[in-house]
Amino acid sequence: MIDTALWIALALFSAAVALNFYRAVIGPSLPDRILAVDTMYMNSIALIVLFGIWLGSKDYFEAALLIAMLGFVSTIAVCKYLLRGDIIE
Q1: For the whole model, what pTM was predicted?
Q2: Closest by alpha carbon to 3, among 38, 68, 55, 40?
Q3: How far, in Å, CA of 41 to CA of 45, rounded?
Q4: Is the CATH number of domain 2-84 1.10.287?
Q5: Among 5, 13, 55, 88, which lies 20 to 30 A Cα-Cα from 82?
Q6: Strands, DSSP E only, in 17-79?
Q7: Using H for helix, E for strand and C for coil, what is the string for 18-83?
C-alpha cells in the first residue's frame, strides 16, 4: 500500500517539476520565472524526501535540507538584486 502511494507521489511531483521548468522557461516576466524556480526547489526537495523514504536511507534527508537552505538563500539574493540592483548594501 505504501509503495503504491510512493509511486503516485513520485509521479505527481515529477510532473510538477516538469511544469515548473516549463514556467521557468516560458514565463512572461522575471518574477514569474523566479517563483517557478523557487517552486521547483520545493518540489525537488519533496522528490528527494520521497526517494529517501522509498530507499529507507537517512542521507537523502540531509541532501534535501541542504537544497532547501541553498534554495532559500538564492531566492532571497535574486529578489534583492531584482528590487535594488545590488545584493550586498
Answers
A1: 0.83
A2: 55
A3: 6
A4: yes
A5: 13
A6: none
A7: HHHHHHHHHCCCHHHHHHHHHHHHHHHHHHHHHHHHHHCCCHHHHHHHHHHHHHHHHHHHHHHHHH
